[in-house]
Every structure is written in structure tokens, then in C-alpha cells.
């Protein structure tokens, strides 16, 4: 299936002015963000952009006050000092500084997996059944309500931080121990038994899907960022199925108020078909990351991808 990619809109890097590549921060995903940010920084400089590394929100504020920042390429991940929860977006909106990625609403909403799923359900979009676990709530009861197998995970984290795969009663102890020391909401989610996919969004198009095939039993933090034996098959589907997963992902992205660029994670259940899992509004841009892999299928290399994302701020 062929896909038409719009031409780049500008060719002069001076149009962007001084660009802050916002990375690092203080979230649980700091190291991944630094890896992504350094890749973006090198790519933009390669294409002549006046780009500079900025580590975290306080340094960003200092740079804006000093008049040394014209726009922001946000590659902060996570919340609590990360850049995916709407806080940075609100700051930049208030100060009139253009930035990459979704705005305040889309960023804040999709950082919260529970509320994201509630919107999808209201819109009639498919997503696995779940039970909300309030801080201090009964995790064991939530899991039993759904029935095994389930995933238990924080509502407001990413990069597989604090995710537990629970196949039976004997797997509960580590999740219960984590919950006891975790201040936020958790959710127990019915496990999808089938294939895992992700679809990147770039502007108005959904890029080719990627089927993720980890060497181990599931796609955990190690498989995402460390292992070299995870397979990424792109496109992940063919024909009408590929069109369907792209269309669903684009609809899911828009339903939660997102625009610009991002990534939608999807699974195909053996019985229930496609199921939406979550949205990433500042996707990883490391050597293992998935958006660059999908873009490459359309002839967009890493540096051009960074340019196209930044171009959306003009």
C-alpha cells in the first residue's frame, strides 16, 4: 500500500531561530529522554538548525527569560519533571513559545491511562477492560474482578515503569509491594493475548504500523531499550488490516485531543481484534525507538523526521 507523504514546507533552517531541545528532566524516564534528546540535537544541527540542549524545566525557564530560545523541541518523557503531562505545554503557551507535540489537553489527558481509556470508551473505540485502583486500594480485589491474566501498571508513568504481568495468584506479591509504596493511581487491565503493534502519527498521517516481536515473553523495559534481539516488522500488517490499524490509531489520537506527532500502541487480541493500549505524546527517539523505524519505511530518515516534527511549530 503506497502512502503519500507531504513535501517539507521550509528549507531554510534559519526559519526556526534558536531551538531548545528539551531533554532529561527529573522524571523516571530521564535517561531515555537524554538518549533521545542527544539524537535529536545532533540531527537538527546536521541540517543547520541552531539547536541547543536544555536539561529540564528550570533550565528552560532560564533560557526563555534570557531571550535565548525561540522554539522548543520537546523530548522530555514522563511526568513529575517530564514533558508529557501538560505542565511544560501550559508554561510555553503562557509565554508564547512554540513547541513540538500535542498541546495542554492532549498531553495531560494521555499521561493518564485511566482517563484516556474512559474517553476511548465514550467514543466507542476498543480498549481492554480495566479496574481503577486508588492509592491504598485493594489491588488483589481489582485483579480478581477482571480475572487472570492481567497487567497492573501506574496510570501516570511510561517506558514500562512499574508494570507487572500477572498470570496467576502467585505473581501478585511484587505488584502489591510496589503499590504499597506508590502514591499514584494504578490500573489493572485485562491482558490482551495476541500480537503487539505501534502506529506513529506525523501531522495528518499515520505512518506504517510496526509489529513488535520480543525475544522474551513480553515487551518490557529491557526489550525496549537494551536488548538487540527484539524484532520490529514494518509494516506490521498488510492490505485492509494495515489500513484499519492506521485509521484506528489516528482516530484514537484525535479523540484524546492530540495533534502534531505521537505514537499509539495497539494490540490485536485473538478474539476481540484490535485493542487500544495507550498514547505517547513525546515518543522515544533513541536507536531502539519505533517512530524513526516507521518513518524510514516512507523514505524519511532520522534527520528529516526531526525536521518535519520541528516544522510543525511554524
From TrEMBL:
Which residues are recorded as binding Mg(2+) 1? 265, 278
According to its UniProt record, which cofactors does this protein need?
Answer: Mn(2+); Mg(2+)
- Provide the catalytic activity annotation: 2 D-alanine + ATP = D-alanyl-D-alanine + ADP + phosphate + H(+)
Enzyme Commission designation: 6.3.2.4
What is the stated purpose of this protein?
Cell wall formation.
Q: Name one GO cellular component term.
A: cytosol
Q: Which NCBIfam families does the record associate with it?
A: D_ala_D_alaTIGR, PRK01372.1
- Superkingdom assignment: Bacteria
Q: How is the cofactor bound?
A: Binds 2 magnesium or manganese ions per subunit.
The residues listed in the UniProt record as binding Mg(2+) 2, with positions renumbered to this chain, are 278, 280
Keywords in alphabetical order, please. Answer: ATP-binding, Cell shape, Cell wall biogenesis/degradation, Cytoplasm, Ligase, Magnesium, Manganese, Metal-binding, Nucleotide-binding, Peptidoglycan synthesis
Q: Which GO terms describe its biological process?
A: cell wall organization; peptidoglycan biosynthetic process; regulation of cell shape
| Name of the protein in its database record | D-alanine--D-alanine ligase
Asked whether the keyword Metal-binding is assigned, the reply is yes
Amino acid at each position: 500500500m503506497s502512502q503519500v507523504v507531504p513535501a517539507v514546507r521550509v528549507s531554510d533552517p534559519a526559519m526556526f531561530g534558536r531551538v531548545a531541545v528539551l531533554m532529561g528532566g527529573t522524571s523516571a524516564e530521564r535517561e531515555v529522554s537524554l538518549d533521545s534528546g542527544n539524537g535529536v540535537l545532533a540531527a537538527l544541527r546536521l541540517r543547520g538548525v541552531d539547536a541547543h540542549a536544555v536539561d529540564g524545566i528550570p533550565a528552560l525557564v532560564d533560557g526563555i527569560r534570557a531571550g535565548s530560545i525561540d522554539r522548543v523541541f520537546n523530548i522530555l518523557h514522563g511526568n513529575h519533571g517530564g514533558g508529557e503531562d501538560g505542565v511544560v505545554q501550559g508554561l510555553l503557551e503562557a509565554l508564547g513559545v512554540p513547541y513540538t507535540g500535542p498541546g495542554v489537553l492532549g498531553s495531560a489527558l494521555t499521561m493518564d491511562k485511566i482517563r484516556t481509556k474512559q474517553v476511548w470508551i465514550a467514543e466507542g473505540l476498543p480498549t481492554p477492560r480495566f479496574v481503577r485502583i486508588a492509592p491504598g486500594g485493594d489491588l488483589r480485589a481489582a485483579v480478581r474482578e477482571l480475572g487472570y491474566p492481567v497487567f497492573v501498571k501506574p496510570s501516570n508513568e511510561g517506558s514500562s515503569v512499574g508494570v507487572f504481568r500477572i498470570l496467576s495468584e502467585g505473581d501478585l506479591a511484587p505488584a502489591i509491594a510496589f503499590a504499597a509504596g506508590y502514591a499514584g493511581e494504578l490500573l489493572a487491565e485485562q491482558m490482551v493475548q495476541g500480537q503487539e503493534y505501534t502506529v506513529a502519527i506525523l501531522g495528518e498521517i499515520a505512518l506504517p504500523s510496526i509489529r513488535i516481536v520480543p525475544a522474551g515473553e513480553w515487551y518490557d523495559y529491557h526489550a525496549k531499550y537494551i536488548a538487540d534481539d527484539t524484532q520490529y516488522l514494518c509494516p506490521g500488517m498488510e492490505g485492509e488490516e494495515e489500513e484499519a490499524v492506521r485509521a484506528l490509531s489516528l482516530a484514537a489520537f484525535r479523540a484524546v485531543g492530540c495533534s502534531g506527532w505521537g505514537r499509539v500502541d495497539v494490540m490485536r487480541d485473538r478474539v476481540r481484534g484490535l485493542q487500544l493500549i495507550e498514547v505517547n505524546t513525546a515518543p522515544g527517539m533513541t536507536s531502539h525507538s519505533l517512530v524513526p523505524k516507521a518513518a524510514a519505511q516512507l523514505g524519511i530518515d532520522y534527520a528529516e523526521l526531526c525536521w518535519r516534527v520541528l516544522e510543525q511549530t511554524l
